[in-house]
Specification:
Blueprint lengths: L1 H7 L5 E17 L2 E16 L2 E16 L6 E7 L2 E6 L2
Amino acid sequence: SDRLSQSLQIDDPQVKIAKINVTSLEPIYVGNLPAYHLQGDYDLTLQLPHQKDTKQHNNFDLYLQRQIEGKTWRLLEEVASQWRSYLVK
């Protein structure tokens, strides 16, 4: 949200994600841990000071992995045949 505010040069834009539709859920293994490959679409609404912009049916294609302790999830990205992971907050 901070980077979005800076790039749009506005304070605290209101972003709403709605109608998340998962069309494909494939269980896989990454690094000997179960993960999920999800594909689908979602609607995005961006409320700016003087206008509202809605984009429907934005596609997503992502990989998620639940950590061993079961308390956190990580977003996975395959780069040059290696996996990078990012904590999902």
